[in-house]
Amino acid sequence: MSLDLLIELAGGIDNVRRILSPSEFVIVAVHNNECCHPLPDGVTSTLVLGEWQLSMSRGDIGDDELRQVGEKLAKQQRSRAQPYQTPTYSPYRPQWHISPPQGLLNDPNGFIYHQGEYHLFYQWYPYACEHKDKYWVHLTSTDLVNWNYQSLALTPSDWFDSHGAFSGHAVSQDDGLYLFYTGNVRIGEQRHRQTTQCLAYSQDGRSFKKCGPVIRHLPAGVTEHIRDPKVFFANGEWVMLLGAQTTELTGRLAVYRSTNLTDWQFDGLYGEEIAQGYMWECPDTFILNEQRFFVFGPQGIKDDNPHHTIGHQNRIYRMSLDDTNHPTLHEGWQLDAGFDFYAPQTTQTPDGRRVMIGWMGLPDEVQHPSCDQQWLHQLTTLREIHWQDGQLKQYPAQELQQLRQAPHQLVLSAQCVDAQSASYELHLELEWGQELRLMAGSEHYVSIIADRERGVLRLDRQHTQIRQGDVIRELVLDSARIALVIFVDHSSLEIFINRGDKVMTTRAFVPSDATNIHLLGGKAQATLYPLRAASAPFSG
Ligand code: FRU
């Protein structure tokens, strides 16, 4: 039986929703089942979780033939997603952060400086505020502030990524742009997960051709939770890092090596020395000031603070590689002490700075007020990350200064000052015992409290329109005073503390007229820069 006949039985390519190829079979899922009767011997039809699927033995159908179907499905998926690229009006929409026009955004992907421009992709599900079959949206920029929409670079169109082109990184090599990503597939009623690591290639930095899986099978000792490839060059070879879960349900780092970016050999599982959580996601690695670092998202982490109930974390560790690229992890830190910071990626600017962008969201958070306007989540601001005198420092990227408008000098006190903008940068020093209230209106506000008794800086978002998630984050600080640089952008707050020592990032939903600022417990001088809008990276 040929693949063409199966597609014909399915009512033609326009009625095909996805293609799957578990072990010895080929399956096509259809939109409408009415056309699919009667079926010849050798083809069966099954209802799988509300989706009709026609299945036959794969026989000698090759990957290329399946890819041709994938290309046709990709075309359909792009045109179906087109109306979802028009942004909805929303009072919560940021003015210069990257947000999805509609649907759900999660991790930044493939962040890289390549051929004179920055490329950034993000995980996107166009059709609802839900985590479903993910696309890669492609944006470019020359200044890290204004982003242009390019295309839907990857769609979940193929047998190896039918339930999501999951996260990964980019490599710039010999004029080409290589995207490494995880192909996520779910089979049958039990939604059995099938994971491969895939490659897509672009010669022109605009259109991407899928090359299919470069790693098809799981290494021994891990579950199907192995994903988010980061590829880099070290000691004369390419190295791929993957976040993984062992069959004992512990988080680990899986390492593969290659000499040509397409043939990969499994090397081993690492990270036992820091044993953290049941799964690691989204690895990244880079060198700062001759020291290598490793960034990842361990899941299932317990915190002693009773306010901190979310197990999904962000961490950075000092890492060393021996001559054969075996990693060892040394001491580590949380990258961000706020509520919403996950899955960050970095790239190097042409002048040598390491800039990082993250997802301002968390895996289980799906009920924000912006869902009322059909969009969910955004990316964080760009931050520079430095290693200075044995200390990690994170600063707002210097490029953000392009957004500044003429500053206002303010004296903050218990009397409210209207910021007259929902998007600004605020500089001040807080004294222990003081409370700063931002985004304040008649009922709503966010508090930043320097609690002298407990020696913590407390970020409190309980008086916002929050629908889901923790409301208090506490950060232990022992500095004499607390220098703050705060970025507010409609429904987000990013607080840089003590000149790069710490950062707290959070979503905060308040009505659009809640723009007042108060300081309780004294007075403080402050500088406020209203920020202008950046170009919105929606459809082209
Ligand atoms: C992290 C993550 C990744 C995965 C992607 C799917 O947020 O779960 O591990 O590749 O999201 O969208």
UniProtKB/TrEMBL annotation:
Top EC class for this record: hydrolase
Any one of the GO BP annotations: sucrose metabolic process
Coiled coil region boundaries: none
Residue span(s) of domain Glycosyl hydrolase family 32 C-terminal: 401-522
Pathway(s) it belongs to: Glycan biosynthesis; sucrose metabolism
Residue ranges of domain Glycosyl hydrolase family 32 N-terminal in the record: 97-396
EC code(s) of this entry: 3.2.1.26
GO molecular function: beta-fructofuranosidase activity
Chief place of localization: cytoplasm
Transmembrane segments: none
Localization of this protein: Cytoplasm
Pfam family, one: Glyco_hydro_32N
Similarity comment: Belongs to the glycosyl hydrolase 32 family.
Record function comment: Enables the bacterium to metabolize sucrose as a sole carbon source.
NCBIfam families, sorted: scrB_fam
Protein name: Sucrose-6-phosphate hydrolase
